[in-house]
């Protein structure tokens, strides 16, 4: 499933690079103010969940996310794609180190308290979250009289 997530993000970046820059950076009346903001959101949430899987502390995760959000928010589309590529390498490295993706991890959150998650469920969450927000991108592109790009799972399988 994570391979699909990486593939779908790559499809979106490839498509966005072919569009005028104003489409990527321009303000849109939507859930997010711009396509860039959606792509940054997916990126930082992916960081958050990888850090959660690694059992990093809440404070360390927040600090890392805020630092990388700041960098990503100022990035060109090519730079942001590179950030995504590097993050996917970190995910794959983490997966390679795991003996059991069905293992349970325990997290502590100041608002939600103690939680137990199965790693495989968190991976599905990352993929599902990305799918949801790539849909936002498609809607925002249509608002700007642009076409979206097909990223349905079946296209990945094909």
TrEMBL record:
Protein residues bound to a divalent metal cation: 41, 129, 133
Keyword field contains Metal-binding: yes
Source superkingdom: Bacteria
GO molecular function: metal ion binding
UniProt KW keywords: Metal-binding
Similarity annotation: Belongs to the DinB family.
Name of the protein in its database record: Damage-inducible protein DinB
């Amino acid at each position: 499933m994570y391979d699909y997530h990486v593939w779908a993000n790559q499809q979106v970046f490839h498509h966005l690079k072919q569009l005028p820059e104003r489409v990527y950076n321009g303000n849109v009346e939507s859930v997010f103010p711009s396509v860039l903001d959606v792509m940054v959101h997916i990126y930082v949430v992916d960081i958050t969940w990888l850090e959660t899987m690694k059992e990093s502390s809440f404070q360390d995760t927040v600090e890392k996310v805020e630092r990388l959000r700041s960098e990503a928010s100022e990035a060109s589309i090519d730079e942001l794609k590179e950030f995504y590529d590097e993050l996917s390498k970190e995910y794959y490295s983490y997966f390679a180190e795991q003996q059991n993706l069905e293992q349970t991890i325990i997290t502590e959150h100041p608002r939600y308290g103690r939680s137990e998650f199965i790693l495989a469920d968190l991976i599905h969450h990352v993929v599902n979250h990305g799918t949801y927000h790539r849909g936002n991108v498609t809607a925002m592109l249509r608002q700007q009289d642009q076409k979206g790009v097909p990223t349905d799972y079946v296209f990945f399988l094909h």
